[in-house]
Amino acid sequence: MPSSASSLPAPHVTELPWCPPERLFPLCREAETSVFLDSGGPAEQERHRWSFLCPRPAGRLTLPLAEMHLVPQRLRAFLAAHAPAGRPSPPLPPELPFTGGVIGLLSYEAGMAREGLTSRHVTDCPTFTALACRDLFIFDRLEQRLWWASADGAPPPDQPATTARPDSPGPSLIPVPEQDAATWQAAVRSVQEYIAAGDIFQANLTMRWVAPRPKTLDLHALYDQLRTRCPAPFGAWFHTPEFTLLSASVERFLSLDRQRRIETRPIKGTCPVSDDPRQNDALKEALRRDEKELAENLMITDLMRHDIGRVCQLGSVDVPHLFTVERFAHVHHLVSSVTGRLQKGHDAADLLAATIPPGSITGAPKYRAMQIIDEVESSARGAYCGTLFRLGWDGALDSSVVIRSISATEDHLKVGAGGGITYPSHPEREYKEMRLKAMPLLKLLHDHGH
To answer: Is the pLDDT of residue 391 over 70?
Structure first.
């Protein structure tokens, strides 16, 4: 990856008249592969501000599970192979965070493999897929500005004609849980037994709902509904012929800026949102004082300090924010922030390889937690609990934890949800919290056919 400002490749960047991202999303409808990093919610916050749409990626890299040890090398080579050739005039102000590069998806099992583990479950999700984004739209939702970036100076595609949304509902989608309440709560107690025995401090336990995919299902329309009903800072459409991810993720995994500064924002701790302001304040205050939720967040924050510390300069790792309550579309979460500065001789590919899968969806200690998770869960996680990332020509990185998402293959749709289990956890309460996280997506699928 480029190491100095003078050697950074840069595309041709042209400012266009503003139009919102949803106006250009139909460009993805007929594409064999396409990707849309779709920030929703209040644009005043940095992580909600920018969106990026690449309707025609220039190339695709896939790696099987057996080659996960080669992720950094293959990712670097793929980025370099598609980089712009010359160095045209620099991007227009303001400084654009991403003017092209690679957008990729690493599954949860890819992270397991990087840690030397193999799942007992069979997954239908590609282990690692990366798309080369040489031509893309860049949206600044805060200032309502739009750019087209092209590695070769190609003109932007024509704006799609306005099409009305279909009046008739889509085909019926009835997601079925893979475990009933009693079975999932028994798995909670199994995790607690491992904690009592001293194997782990906590583990993130998840489950999935599955719905058959009707042949007539319009995934594009389903994502339109998802982004409208569940606006999220790390929303995404990641589409290939074999697999499509529809994400409404609220959680940043890792970011790495041009000054080699790293931030990760682990989320642990959840409570509902109320329409009554006084009740809402009471819920937030209870979350701030919940010893179980605070302990869970602290353990994951410490785990992430350890993970990024593998590739950070000695003494640079810090925790500027601990236990901040943040509101999202349907819930409040406890969020912390861990920062550091990348060591010389390391890059974004090394950072990803050193930290996947995300600590917030594994547990502590991480290796043993993943072994126990694989034992007590009843299916592969696939894209759920994996990582979606963008890696720019300049070496800067941003990524999300794949939660609050729908995974689609040719045959079915899957939704996952889960939560951190500690020794004081109450199985029935954990089940209700897990259902709270899944409910907006399950309701979306249910309503789609009505």
So the answer is: yes
Q: What pLDDT is recorded for position 163?
A: 61
Q: Please, which pLDDT band fits residue 275 given cuts at 50, 70 and 90?
A: confident
Model's pTM, two decimal places?
Answer: 0.93
Give the right CATH number for 5-448 from 2.60.300.12, 3.60.120.10, 3.80.10.10, 3.30.1600.10.
3.60.120.10
Considering 268, 292, 366, 414, which one is annotated as catalytic? 268
Helices (H), 310-418: 348-355, 366-376
Q: Round to whole Å and give the CA distance between 418 and 258.
A: 34
Task: Give the pLDDT band (50/70/90) at residue 5.
Answer: very low
Query: Which one is catalytic: 46, 109, 215, 251?
Result: 251
What b/e readout covers 126-147, taking b as 16+ CB neighbours within 10 angstroms?
Answer: bbbbbbbbbbbbbbbbeeebbb
Taking the C-alpha atoms of residue 139 and residue 98, their distance in angstroms, rounded to an integer, is 10
Contact indicator for 250, 404 with CB cutoff of 8 Å: yes
Q: How far is CA 170 from the centre of its chain?
A: 26
Q: Can 32 be counted among the known catalytic residues?
A: no
pLDDT band at 249 (very low <50, low <70, confident <90, very high): very high
- Give the span between the Cα atoms of 362 and 352, in whole angstroms: 16
Residue with tokens 């160095």: 87
366 as an active site residue: the answer is no
